[in-house]
Amino acid sequence: MQVTKEDITFVAKLVDELCGVILDDTKGYLIESRLGELAKASGCASYRDLCQKARLTHNQVLQNQIIDAITTQETLFFRDESPFAALQYKAIPELLDSKAKTAFPKRIRIWSAASSTGQEAYSTAMMLCETIPDVLSWDIHILATDISDAAIKVASQGWYAKHEIQRGMKPQLLTKYFVEQQGGWKIKDSIRAMVQFQKRNLHQPFLGIGPFDIIFCRNVAIYFDVPRRRDLFLRLSERLTPDGYLLVGSSESLLDLGPRFAPQSHCRATYYQPNRPLRAEAPLARCAAGGR
After folding, report:
1. With bands split at pLDDT 50, 70 and 90, how would you rate the model's confidence at 292?
2. What 3-state DSSP class applies to 286?
3. Per-residue pLDDT tens digits for 77-125
4. How many domains does the chain have?
5. Are 202 and 64 members of one domain?
6. What is the span of the domain harbouring residue 261?
7. Same domain, yes or no, for 140 and 29?
8. Concatenated DSSP letters for 164-218?
9. Omega of the bond leading into 211 within 30 degrees of 0 (cis)
10. Hey, how many other C-beta atoms are within 10 angstroms of the C-beta on 261?
11. Is 13 helix (H, G, I), strand (E, B) or coil?
12. Which of 191, 203, 215, 280 has its CA 20 to 30 A from that of 8?
């Protein structure tokens, strides 16, 4: 089904309303490739008809199908590697020290926003296990959220095909934290128990969650317009603890949000601590390879 300029306008407006992803006039190919079969299956003669059917009938199932088709769910275990190195050699050790002085010395709260099919959340859980010797005695909770019902379903099951496992998973961690099942690999219950999956729209208020010691929000705001991107990160900062860490995508920068969002670097990863009082930094722990 060929997309017209009018179709792009209708689809862009609906997608913006549903999930805040911005589609411009150059995205006709994306609409055809991702919504063509859905439009046909829904008995629609055009993409405009598909949008009208989804909106006017308040068809939640169809709206969810459009979200699932349009949103990018490209992910892999330990994606970009450097954020997880910074987690292991910087964030977690500092959290262990700071937590020791609080009323809850063994409580850690982490949010994986836009978690897609769960690889980021499970990678984080495995890194915690690798870093904290007595991890089973800790109160650890990882909230993993996404706007896609399909992504949440896959993540909750914790089963991955071999080709998904081969993308980023370290062999020594695979045998330690997964069990082979039905031609693929399933995350062990001990790791699954650390993670709660939940559907959330990042443009809606963050009610009933937080505060978090670490928030991952990587490679999702690049699809938002400037005002909503800014609003998102300001609201995320409100859900961080005073010493909390915010990690974004490798190509993202928060310099335009003001001095609170001064970038910091460790193990080639950039992170932000927008709620941390300005003070002299302690010497950084070294990465595994000896770098800083």
Report:
1. very low
2. coil
3. 999 999 999 999 999 999 999 998 888 999 999 999 999 999 999 999 9
4. 2
5. no
6. 82-272
7. no
8. HHTTT--HHHHHHHEEEETTEEEE-HHHHTTEEEEE--TTS--TT---EEEEEE-
9. yes
10. 18
11. helix
12. 203
